[in-house]
Amino acid sequence: MSPASLPARVAVLRGRDAEQDAVRRLLDRARTGSGGAMLFAGGPGMGKTALLDHAAGQARGFLVLRTRGAESEHGLPHAALHRLLRPLGDPGPHLPEPQAALLRATLHLPPASRPLSATGPRAPGATASDGPTPAAAAGGRPSAARRRARTAAAPFSPVAPTQEAGDALGPAVAVLEWLASLAARGPVLVCVDDLHHLDAASHDLLLFAARRLAAEPVAFLFTADRPPGHGAALDDEVPVRVLGPLDPAAARQMLDDLAPAGLGEDLRASLERLAHGVPLALAELTGSLTPGRLAGTHAPPVSVPPGGRLWRAHTRRLAALPEATRALLLLVAADPDLDIPTLVRAAAPRHGDAAPSEAGERYGGVPPDAGRGHGGGVSPGHVLDLLEPAEVAGVLTAEGDRYAFAEPVMGPVVYAAASPAARRAAHRLLAGVLHHDHQRLRRAWHRAAALDGSVDELAAELAEAAQAAGPHAGHPEPYLALERAAELTERGEVKAARLAAAAHHASISGHPQRARALLARLSPLTVPAEMRGQAELLRGNLELLGGETGSAHDRFLAAAGWLLDRDRSLGVRALVRAAEAGYFAGDHQRFLAIARRAAVLRRPDERPATRLMFEFLEGMAATLRGRHAEAAEPLRRVLLLAPHVHSTAMLVWAGSAGLLLGDDANALALATRAVESARGRGGASALPQLLSAVINAELWLGRYGSVTRHAIEGLRLAQETGQHNTAGQHLAWLALAAAVQGDKETCRTRAAAALEVADAHGLGVAAALGNWALAHLDLSRGRAADAAGRLRAELRNGHVVVRVMATPTFIEAAARTGERQDAMAALDVLDRWAGSTRNPDRLALAARCHALLAEPGASEELFRHALDLHHRGSCEFETARTELLFGGALRRDRRPGAAREHLHSALDAFERFGARLWAAQARAELRAAGQAVPPPSTPASRPFSHLPEGERQADRQAQIARLTAQQEQIARMVAEGATNREVAARLVISPRTVDHHLRNIFAQLGIRSRVDLARLLS
To answer: What is the full DSSP assignment across 732-788?
Structure first.
């Protein structure tokens, strides 16, 4: 393909901001007459060619020349140079005849070729066939004079390309002069792709020119698969930028650009894991998605598409390795957990079977006579020697006690490219060396893959091993093992049971779409009623976390219908889950209907877990009816039963009971116990919802730093496991934390995202929390009418529990706007709840609200009573809010001295919490009370370089510990290479907010750049 026909495509390059900036600077220098060169190095698919395309698209006013190395032309001298220069036509009009004749002979150029036009406007980013034009800049260039001087000093005569080596400098200087001549008319960009495949002559001539044109308006951009030291002979005059994988945020953005609408989160996560941040892998995998894969009825890809560019690139590299090396690579690819001693035993059996007989057939195993020792086995040392070519070629790296593919994408390619017989042979070898109990699942997996025995026995062994596997079992994941066992099973009921078990494990390990696909495969099978009920319960769970709450409610009720007569405890759990779906939707009538149904089903001899569920339904139903005193007794019984249960869901329900009773510390302990249990069991899918329970308790305790930290973790996990609904709730929690801190932009961005999810999926609780966050922000900004209007509206404010939680905010706003009647009605509800809890923090809030609505002269006693209750409670932030309101009341009562005491206390607390807007209100009140208040100060930092090393390290850690949860998250993402836009997309905030946080982080840590930040956090 000629340079004229190569595409100069301009596309959005995700995660390559630094490289694009380097290209821009290089082109800017060339425009001003001072060129240079740069090499982008990286493995196949890293986006090197895309960067050249980007450069060509940005090179407006440049003559763009392009060539690329071709493996098939590696032995043809000057082939790549011919591809670069042939479209320019005859060099005669641009060079002295001796040099022109030399190039014609060297490159076999026809003398009659049409010369490039020397006049006429140059098109933006013109390629060689467009022809050069005079440079846009006015004035002559000194390059022509320099060129004439060089020509006079180095006379030439036409010689053939077969001339003596001593004359090899002639073509190099001629190429240099031709490029300089072109540059005299305007800047030139030379793009050389795949430098590692260039023929030696072109390689040397182009680098010769690149080193000598720094004073000309010529820019060289090279790409190579690997950096110098692996074959590309460069020096310091050609700087190298190594392209690594995209960070997770950039990879997600690229998938957003490429993926069709409706791409499921777990399919997205599967593609991200398989691509390992390689841009071409992401593009090709997305392009391989069939309707069945998108719908979840077909399994996701297991490797990059066979026959694609990335597949061909990797298989070419594999084909260059010795046969025995490829056989060992297949063993590594077949078991990601393979350590080196096990690899040696598998490849070098001293007793029993020799290596597989298919060795000569596409990676089929170590040839039987390769490195045999005197005892008939392959020596361990020789096995490692056989892998050395793969290490030298950059295919394999040693990491601790195991080997890993340098480019993880290659592992699945190695496996998928091998013949079925070779794969079975590799699995048979691996199964033969895995004897320990903790290797039971891996051994069964390899035996099943090798079909090494009766199919029924293999399926049974694999299913039993998967069910017995502990948390963090490694390769393979239990759901994959159970799916394989089901595929090997013919009997309908047994097959259905294994598919259902696989779906359950896929769900708890965070693969909801895979779980749905496995459940869909149950439809044509004969499924017992109890199993059908269990499957419907799982479908309900999946819907509740990522689908429609109404659909989840219906599926739970259907599951209860199947299960109540067959598995009573599980049937009652299905009822509670149906009620919970109503709670999340804000549809309290559905909750109450289920509670009435459950009351009829109760028996006096229930087990503790079943009793807890019935008591929870009774207590919650009374709460939703506003009968808080009636609710207290069953909710206390829930707490008494909590020590006797182990289910994480029941611990969360018990924690909710604790919050409704005002027992916040116990609620936090129960929710934390549930989270720790899920982490220990490896239940990734449960964590986002369990963290939400932790956050709810932390909110009441006023631990906003922990709220942010846990909500960021919960949001990340929810996004990774396809839990849209739980992600919406975490966005709402984050919006509320941002409102407390006075971060207007972040609060609005996250609240908007939470409300969008809530509206799409029927999530009343997330909508109410997001609405409360915006009302809190309005109130902190002094916009009381806006706050009251938000909390008075029926839209997004219908969740009874959240409405009561937000009542103090509403009453304060209503009191400021004179809406006393509405405020008193809301206070009546708050009084009933706070009185039923006997919690000092709840009672303090109610007392504060009474003070705000009290007649003149009656508020002071109520404020003091509220502060007395606060001091017996736990929430310092709400204490500060009461101090602020009391101080303002005292100031308006013309008692500035008494007011200042409370206002100073409030200001100190707000500054500790980082609550900027509330702190600003406290300062304004202090100034109104006659107190001069200094402006807020930025925390000072000592420069680390001026400290002794030990003190420097301690100071670094202390400064990092003072960052907020969000600042630390941003700092770590930036240190890992994420751009501001990528951080913003991941954390659902604006790039401007990221920039604001980064400035504060740099100031607090005493650093000046992202490089300093990466070094500090490394």
So the answer is: HHHHHHHHHHT-HHHHHHHHHHHHHHHHHHT-HHHHHHHHHHHHHHHHHTT-HHHHH
